[in-house]
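Section 5: illustrative case.
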C-alpha cells in the first residue's frame, strides 16, 4: 500500500521585526538575508519606544503585522533591549514569538540577563560579512526550518 503524496505548501514570507538603531547593522542584516535568498518581510524599528508601539499596534503602527521572529539589539535609544524583551515575554499575546538577541555585547551579565528574561537565543554579532551571513544562516536553519512556527 502506498501513501498519498503530500502536497507541498507554498513558502510564505517570514515576517521579521528587526529592532536595531544602527543603520549599518540594519543594512548588514538585510544583505545577509538577501545573500541567503530567505523569503522575508522586514520591518525595522530604531528605538525601544517604537518597538513597543509596533508590537502593540499603536500610533503609526496600528496596522502592523505580528512578527514571526524578532531580532533584538540590546543598546537602543528610549527603551533598551532588556525592557523590550521583558515587555514581550510578559505579554500573553506576544510571549510565544521567538526573540533572538543579536548584539555586540559579549558580557556574561548581558547573556545571563537575557536568558533570565526568556530570550530564545543570544548571538554576538560577528565582525565580518561572511561570518555574519553564517550566523544568519544558522538562524534560518533552526528558527525557519527546524523549529515549528506558530500557526
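Designed sequence:
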Amino acid at each position: 500500500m502506498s501513501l498519498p503524496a503530500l502536497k507541498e505548501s507554498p513558502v510564505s514570507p517570514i515576517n521579521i521585526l528587526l529592532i536595531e538603531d544602527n543603520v549599518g547593522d540594519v543594512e548588514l542584516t538585510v544583505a545577509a538575508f538577501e545573500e541567503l535568498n530567505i523569503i522575508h518581510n522586514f520591518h525595522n524599528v530604531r528605538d525601544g519606544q517604537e518597538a513597543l508601539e509596533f508590537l502593540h499596534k499603536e500610533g503609526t503602527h496600528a496596522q502592523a503585522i505580528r512578527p514571526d521572529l524578532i531580532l533584538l539589539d540590546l543598546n537602543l535609544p528610549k527603551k533598551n533591549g532588556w525592557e523590550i524583551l521583558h515587555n514581550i515575554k510578559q505579554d500573553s499575546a506576544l510571549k510565544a514569538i521567538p526573540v533572538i538577541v543579536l548584539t555586540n555585547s559579549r558580557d556574561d551579565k548581558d547573556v545571563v540577563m537575557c536568558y533570565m528574561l526568556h530570550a530564545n537565543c543570544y548571538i554576538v554579532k560577528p565582525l565580518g560579512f561572511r561570518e555574519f551571513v553564517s550566523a544568519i544562516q544558522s538562524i534560518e536553519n533552526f528558527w525557519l526550518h527546524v523549529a515549528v512556527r506558530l500557526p
